[in-house]
Amino acid sequence: MKKRVALILLTLLSVMFVLAFAAACDVEAPDPDKLGIADMGVGDRLWTGIQVFILGLAMVFIVLFLLIGCIKIVEYLIALPEKIAKKKAVENIETEKREAEQAAVAAAEQQREEEEEYEVVAVITAALTAYYCGGQAAEMSDLPFRVRSIKEIK
């Protein structure tokens, strides 16, 4: 579909260029006698022919370069939405990766905090048990120490 639109646009541009050029050069072909070709010698006729040849060749190449430029512009305009879409897709993928990494880091941190809470609870429970059970805990345990009191550190 895009190629058809580009082809139609290129054709319209070409037709408009040819019509504008024809309108600008709206000169009837001169009579050879008005140019004085009949009175010219062979050298002058040859020189006039070479000038016409060079002018025609230059005109052909100028028109070809203009057409190439029009084609390049249309090609760029057709490829532009695809480039924008690819760029947005890459940005979206990068954003999703960053969000996934942040979520993984947050989950790991939350798990670490939960583990630390469980360790703290276990330590406090063990300390309270040792404190309230007194000698029984010391007798049952092979540890060389006994908790005598618990104080809050500020």
The tally of helices reads 4
Order of helices and strands: HHHH
* Overall residue-averaged pLDDT value: 79
State the helical fraction. over 70%
Could you walk me through the main structural features you see in this protein, from its secondary elements to its overall organization?
It contains four helices and no strands. With 154 residues, it is mostly helical. The protein has a domain at 2-17 and 42-116.
Give the SSE map.
Elements: H1 2-24, H2 32-35, H3 42-133, H4 135-140
Helix pairs in contact: 1-3
Brief write-up:
The protein is mainly alpha-helical and 154 residues long.
Task: Tag the structure with descriptive keywords.
81% helix; mainly alpha; 154 residues; 4 helices; single chain
